[in-house]
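Hi,

I'm pasting everything inline rather than attaching a file, because the server keeps stripping attachments. The sequence lines come first, and each chain or strand is labelled.
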Amino acid sequence: MKEFVSAQSIDEALDTLSRFGDDCLIMAGGTDIMIQQRTGDIDPRRYLHIERIESLKGILVDEKILIGSTTSHHSIVSSKNLQRLCPGLVSASATVGGWQTQEAGTLGGNICNASPAADTIPSLLAANALVHLKSSSAERTVRLDEFIVGRRMTSRLEGELLVAIEVEALPANASEVYIKVGPRSAMEVALVGLAVRISISPLGIVENVAIATCSVGPKPFRAIAAETAILGSQLEDEAVMNAVSELTQEASPMDDFRASARYRKQVLGSALVNALNICQLQHKLREQS
Amino acid sequence: MKIVGEKYARSDGVVKVRGEALYTTDLQFPGMLFGAIFRSPVAAGRILHLDISAAENSPGVHKIITASDAPRHRHGLVVDDEQIFTSSDITYAGEPIAAIAATSLAEALAALKKIRIEIDEITPIVDLHEAIDPKCRLIHQGWKDFGAPEELFRSNNIVGQMVYDDGDVDKILNGSDFVIENEFVAGRQYQAYMEPKGVVASYENGRFTVHVSHQFPFNVRDRLAKALGIKSSAIRVVGHHIGGGFGGKLDLGIEPFACVLAKSTGRPVKLIQSRAEDMATCPVRENAIIHLRTGVNRDGQIIATDMDVIMDAGAAAGDTPYLSSIPLFLAGAPYKSGRTRVRCRVVYTNTPSTGAFRGVSGTYINFAVERQMDEIAKVIGMDRRQLRLKNLLHDGDCFLNGQVLSDASILDEAFALVESRAPWTTTGKGKLRGVGIAAAVWLTNPLPGSATMKLNEDGTLGLITAATENGSGAVAMGLRQIAAQEFGLEPDDVLISMPDTDVAGYDAGSQGSRTTHVVGRAIQEASIELRSKIISVAAEVLEALPGDIEIVDGQVGVAGVPASRIPLSSIAIAAKSMAGPLVATGSYRTPAPEYNHQCATGLLFTTFPTLTYHVHLAEVEVDPATGNTTVLRYIVAQEVGKVVNPDGVRGQIQGGVAQGLGYVLYENLDIGTDGKYRQKTLEAYRLPIAGDIPEVEIMLLEHPDLAGPHGVRGVAEPPIVPVAAAIANAISDAIGAPLNTIPVRPIDVLDGIRWAQEVHPDRQV
Ligand SMILES: Cc1cc2nc3c(=O)[nH]c(=O)nc-3n(C[C@H](O)[C@H](O)[C@H](O)COP(=O)(O)OP(=O)(O)OC[C@H]3O[C@@H](n4cnc5c(N)ncnc54)[C@H](O)[C@@H]3O)c2cc1C
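And the predicted assembly:
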């Protein structure tokens, strides 16, 4: 029989974690875990259920934006603040599975599961996300790109709980999008995921840009070379084509039954062109109003 | 009272929605054990050593059986090429080697992991061209000794061949103005019903009782008898609610294992497949290669056709040898094919066996024929719809087997109906939008069925039949309404028994849209007898002449004297002390149409009875960034004979289109070089979801079939047939490139767009 502990507070959760360490698996919405257990990928002796801990839920908007780790995708999608300040994340959360998955699944779970296809991670990377971790003896804040270290691997230490995710708000002159590619209209694993956050000056010059992807390598990543290719440009064709070529070079997608690597690379380039077009259009509309 | 043609709720709707309906997996019996099957982990090889000792000592295990505990003779539906367990040669991944019965499923599965096996593995043969080569390694060393019908051509790995030849086809092809040649390839499709296969079997007093959720209980009985080497009367098959089948639950499945385990343990044994096991071993729609050459005159007339088909049977023939006849019908319909040659070969490979799936083989043969029509139109510079109308079959034209289609001109009406809804010249216009059209002729399965009806003492009607309700509503709506109509009763007053081979007369199962047509007719036959029995009792009770008695709205009375009417219940009660209880039985089988018996060799499936006609139109939009397709609009014109329940008909057409859309856009069981499917779960096997499927615009034609009850023809199977063709044609139109493979993958669309740009650089995409 498995042991199931449902913690009521962060302290209770940290206490359980300090006693059992990696002998105890954290469970938030359980949408990843239940499947992994069913397929036999995991077989934990103990579950620490954290979904009932009120202080892990919610969205706090101050000078910084803090999202509690067990905030559901649905809460993110319906948050007026995030729709305004972090629209890329909102559209990413809106693509996680279907309504049921968005109701049960959490942002912290999506991050800690560290799937190469995790939909929220590209937008979080583009928003320079930090993760706040706590154990019974310490606290630390880590950059998300340092937290995700590989396919389904994080740098979480034994006994640590992810308590919150901090993101930078979208600057006033900036636009962002998340593009997810998959054949079905929902319930789809991203064949390619791409987030772009971009600031364009009134003169049309790219002042700041973040490009991040998922499903095109063992872990989601920021595409620095592609960013460099368009930083300072006016998004003229040549700059965009350079960015596309940098991005597709950096990508190392899988060849599997879902899609070939060739397809993923090709679509990744088109997704970047589309994303930049959408951002530019949003920029123009903003300029006009 | 008008009941046929009206919307009545299905009898099983509420229990299914509430979760109260009992499926095979829900059944519990005292002392019941749980079974699990040990299957070959590899696709080809020879077993060197099997060690079950650790598994036998595993907690909860009652019995482990292997080839030495079960009948060893070969059996099969058409060819006797299957055995319950293999003890040496392995012909596909998943081939059963042993089975376990334990106190719980968890214990059975734990024991399964303790079975040790050593296999001398060889490279599986998975490629159709390789398998068909006479020099290829044999999939079955002993194929010559397998029992098979005499008319079935077999040779090496070929397990069925149908050949039709008008003669001089090459000559006429060479003399035609244009020759269009293409190859079409179709992948495998999984039936993906909601309920994986399951069975509970027990053995008592020399007889087996087998509980199933199966489309064809009598086939389970007969196939089991053959597999176990016993009389069919030693088996009773009891049917329960079915969580879908789509053809995947027509042939024998895992029933023999449950039976052998039940007999050897003396306990009931429940065997339920996991989804992964079900997917890996289900007789799915076969993959195939179709080579097509068409000779066409400048004016668009097709004067010669040469079709060559290779179908993959997998490691066992199943019903695929029958399917090799399907190309004969579809090569020459709905369009005249001129001088024609058709060859279809069915081959063994080291892959899981394939079999029946809604629209058997028709889906991809129709795809080839209809894609070819678009390619012909392009080459000769003729409008695609015009080309079709020019070559369309009409009343009095024949299939290639000589069977006359007396009402094929319905196709013209169907084309016109679609035109009235979506004018051809203005539909599908716009950047990366396209329109596709496809037509089909399909049959209603003629196989026999029966119904026993009894007038109950409370005035309700009992209907005993082995017809199965596999979800289509054929029983829960169709048969109930037809029976109710006969006596003017409410459908709720008709109580239909679950199929039971000990109780009901023979029925050929839910296949080929046959249930409403065939069993509906059997109900009408039984009703004639039951009505005359009621009338003779009523005549005595009412002291009138039998000729003056009428049955109206569940009452019986003297014609023209409404005051004389008494309820049917009083007749049923009176009958008990007169002629005895009121019971009657009817049977029906569609007579076989005439055809030319010499037309072809290897024709196992000889005619297409009770025809239905179909025209489908799809409008799509393609995303040039991803190669994804959105089906914007889907229109169906379908000949149904007579609508029994409008909701039932619409549901079947919407569902058939959904399944066809999945087939052409998303679904595929890729076979790896290891002979296994790369898709092992429903997470990997992409079925379409609600958001992918447009609301189908349905237009029905109702030309009654004279033999069908109320004119009913088959409805449920064919709406899947032209879907792949219509959608692929629309995508090809949108991008300006041919797409000749099912499924049409996004990468194929992107490659097509690039190809079209290279060929026509001026074309705007
Ligand atoms: C039908 C279906 C569709 C899906 N579709 C998508 C999709 O489209 N895109 C996508 O990205 N994902 C998808 N998923 C995956 C899943 O829903 C998401 O990853 C979800 O965000 C996981 O959140 P959860 O709370 O359910 O995680 P859980 O399953 O509870 O946990 C996931 C992992 O994170 C760890 N964990 C959770 N919270 C913490 C914490 N606070 N601190 C430390 N470790 C923690 C757990 O130990 C576990 O290893 C889908 C899942 C299903 C079942």
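The first strand of chain B starts at residue 33 and ends at 39.

If the labels don't parse on your end, tell me and I'll reformat.
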